[in-house]
Design a protein that fits this description.
- It is built from 21 helices and 27 strands.
- With about 725 residues, it is α+β, with helices and mostly antiparallel strands.
- The chain has two domains: about 230 residues, 4-Layer Sandwich (Nitrilase/N-carbamoyl-D-aminoacid amidohydrolase), CATH 3.60.110.10; about 400 residues, 2-Layer Sandwich (Creatine Kinase, Chain A, domain 2), CATH 3.30.590.
- Strands 15, 16, 17, 18, 19, 20, 21, 26 and 27 form a nine-stranded antiparallel β-sheet that branches. Strands 1-2-3-4-5 form a five-stranded mixed β-sheet.
- Strand 6 and strand 7 form a beta hairpin.
- Helix 7 packs antiparallel against helix 15.
- The longest helix is centred in the middle third of the chain and has 22 residues.
- The two termini are about 30 Å apart.
């Protein structure tokens, strides 16, 4: 098994460092190596802490990490990203290394355990702990070169760490380091060398380009039982020691390789297309009895072993040359994008002679009104499969985008586009909605044209199970909105909100949005939801491949054959299914439940959204615990929480006192317990709880994605909104 080393000279420009790393990944693949190793501080090395602070961001926002993951997935290469400087607690940083697999998934991360707090005989005094947080545990991870124990730089002087790693089965050790040096011989060498138990792994040091430092190679390390206790001797004034944490399973985002064959769609729920219709003259039988409306929901009931996960995620498409939103029929536009995707086995779906969607084993690729590209994923058994599906899709659209000069933006709202600057896709229902929306609200057109979301579709076993899941989902939807808040800009400036996408729903159409107080009332079930849906005004009737405008008319009249837009005709069950898709509460019932409260986002957040809801809703113990947490809330308090979240996110007031952030960690713990109980393991033996890590990071830092973007906008971006296209792209 071949591995490659990238001996880079990292400097003060993260973008330049990212290019060096991604070029190294490409060269690693070309050389036939399975894995690449980079130095400590591969993303940024700057002796000016004030200047460096402008570039140090949370893990989920780091451009070097994102670029590395993308390149790893593109080339099928594993990467040990020696370390990055990331935002930690308070004003401190993290020195965090990553192991990334050939799909771009993070298999492990490691925070440096031993900080360089020493007084040297030369009179120099170093206190790394003034700037960096100390790690808390040792990490061992399976890789193509064997079981890899992780360390960083000064960790080398502490033999107990390497003893613990080798006792746990490490066959190789990685110790990336970075130094600035102005003279030969200035770099201290390790005091001891471990016994070689098999593979020997060289790692590299990086030097600060800005400091014009020299680069040197660290001599080989090998996995071994002992480094020798004499190796613990080091500079005066320091006695930092390994805390004794035993190596444990790493957390991350493990998912199947991007090249793996997608699973077939589950027969119980093939159609996750929501708004996409195929051209067909087939008309189902008319509805003869209102009981059929209720039976429709009951037919969605499934035993637990048939519960599946259907994930939908939208992204903005933009031209790389000038950031404009491409029209459907322009050269290199949306039609060409869909056409190029057929090379991956996707089949065109036509409406009016136009390709408006694609179908395949991974679900449906469809278009939102202004060309937002959506994957409505197939019903899958676990989150590992979900992230595999996501990885395949993103790899495909990136490959096609590179050819056409297009890229993709993971945000909840267009950050700079006016409505007038956006194209309209040739889908019949969208024309009806665009005409109707201004009649019933001020922001409906923004919802259609300028927003993106992530949502997950989940099953239920019975009417009572549906009701409990609906209540928990609706009560905690504001927390999902807060954790995923990612739409702070409108037309190039901060809009005063953290999730403007969520705010938009408050002024879209009151007849089809809102908290649905009846869900929390005694006796809620299928019949009550059917009555609600009948009160939602219609948009259309679909017949013979065409949409008939019935906007504002009553489905109750349709049941009587008295629909003004289509007199003398009664609805079919297909019409009922279409109508249910035009209600927009943040939890929606069809033959499954849709969780709809989150802003769009990038890679890890796409997987985190279904992880949150699967953890809370698919294990009875977790579901009961979540309900116990929210069941005492008043309806007035629920409404106040929903109304305040778009502006305040985690600082929104809870019913009964406190703030949303006060329960965020507890809810994530409940979700993690639910995922642990599911015991859905991937090939490496990891369960699904690692997919919650982006949300744990939000809770740990107290900053939602929108707040991170605002910090960048008001800081190193200097108010230039165009910088978001690099920051938030896939």
């Amino acid at each position: 098994m071949k591995a490659s080393l990238l001996q880079m000279t990292s400097g003060i420009d993260p973008a330049a460092n990212a290019r060096t790393v991604t070029d190294g990944i490409a060269r690693t693949a070309a050389a036939g190596s399975a894995m690449l190793f980079t130095p400590e501080m591969s993303g940024l090395l700057d002796g000016d802490r004030a200047r460096a602070r402008r570039h140090v961001v949370a893990e989920a926002e780091d451009p070097v990490l994102a670029a590395t993951r993308e390149a790893a997935a593109k080339h099928g290469v594993w990467v040990h990203l020696g370390s990055l400087a990331l935002q930690g607690e308070g004003e401190k940083f993290l020195n965090r290394g990553f192991v990334i697999d050939g799909t771009g998934a993070i298999r492990a991360h490691y925070d440096k355990l031993h900080l360089f707090d020493v007084d040297l005989a030369t009179g120099e005094s170093w206190r790394e702990s003034n700037t960096y947080c100390r790690g808390e545990r040792a990490i061992l991870v399976d890789t193509p070169i064997g079981k890899l124990g992780l360390a960083i730089c000064y960790d080398m002087r502490f033999p107990d760490l390497f003893r613990a790693l080798s006792d746990a089965g490490a066959t190789a050790l990685a110790v990336p380091a970075a130094f600035t040096s102005h003279r030969p011989g200035a770099l201290a060498r390790p005091a001891a060398r471990p016994r070689d138990r098999g593979r020997r792994l060289c790692h590299s040091r990086g030097a600060d380009r800005a400091a014009r430092g020299r680069t040197r190679h660290l001599w080989p390390l090998a996995g071994g039982r002992s480094l020798g206790r004499s190796a613990a001797r080091h500079g005066r004034g320091s006695r930092s020691r390994f805390r004794g944490d035993r190596p444990g399973a790493c957390r991350g985002y493990p998912f199947p390789r991007a090249g793996a064959a997608p699973p077939p769609p589950h027969p119980s729920r093939r159609d996750l297309r929501m708004s996409t219709k195929t051209e067909s003259n087939k008309v189902s039988a008319p509805i003869e009895d209102r009981a059929q409306l209720i039976e429709y929901f009951a037919k969605g009931e499934k035993p637990k072993d048939r519960w599946r996960i259907g994930t939908e995620h939208e992204k903005f498409v933009f031209a790389t040359r000038d950031f404009h939103a491409p029209a459907y029929d322009e050269q290199g536009g949306i039609r060409d994008l869909l056409g190029e995707l057929t090379q991956f086995g996707w089949k065109p779906v036509l409406e009016g002679g136009n390709v408006i969607a694609l179908s395949g084993p991974d679900g449906t690729v469809s278009l939102e009104p202004a060309g937002q590209l959506e994957l409505s994923g197939a019903p899958l058994e676990n989150l590992h499969e979900t992230c595999g599906e996501t990885g395949r899709h993103l790899e495909q659209v990136k490959q096609v985008g590179d050819k056409l000069g297009l890229n993709f933006l993971g945000l909840g709202m267009w950050p700079d586009k006016t409505r007038a600057e956006l194209p309209i896709m040739p889908k019949g229902r969208y024309g009806i909605m665009l005409r109707h929306m201004p009649r019933v609200g001020n922001l409906g057109l923004d919802m259609m044209l300028r927003t993106c979301t992530i949502q997950v579709n989940l099953d239920y076993a019975s009417e009572s199970d549906m009701a409990q899941k609906f209540r928990v989902g609706l009560a905690l939807q504001p927390l999902a909105t807060a954790l995923f808040a990612n739409s702070p800009f409108t037309e190039g400036r901060p809009n005063g909100y953290l999730s403007y996408r969520s705010h938009i729903w408050s002024d879209t159409d009151p007849a089809r949005t809102g908290m649905l107080p009846f869900v929390f009332e005694e006796g809620f079930g299928y019949e009550r939801y059917a009555e609600y849906a009948l009160d939602v005004p219609m948009y259309f009737v679909y017949r013979d491949g065409k949409y008939i405008d019935a906007a504002g008319q009553s489905f109750r009249d349709f049941l009587k054959g008295e629909l003004p837009a289509y007199p003398g005709h009664k609805p079919t069950m297909d019409d009922w299914a279409d109508h249910l898709s035009t209600a927009f509460p943040e939890v929606r019932l069809k033959t499954f439940l849709e969780m709809r409260g989150a802003d769009g986002g990038r890679w890890g957040r796409i997987c985190a959204l279904p992880a949150l809801w699967v953890g809370l809703l698919y294990d009875q113990g977790a579901l009961d615990a979540a309900w116990d947490l929210v069941k005492g809330w008043s309806m007035e308090g629920r409404e106040a929480l929903r109304s305040s979240v778009p502006k305040l996110a985690l600082d929104a007031p809870l019913p009964g006192g406190g703030k949303l952030k006060d329960i965020a960690g507890e809810v994530l713990d409940i979700a993690a317990a639910g995922l642990n109980a599911r015991a859905q393991l991937n090939a490496s033996g990891d369960n699904e709880s690692g997919f919650l890590d982006p949300l744990r990071e939000v809770v740990r830092t107290g900053k939602v994605p929108a707040q991170v973007l605002l910090d960048r906008f008001n800081g190193d971006w200097q108010g230039d909104i165009r910088r978001v296209y690099e920051e938030a792209r896939f």
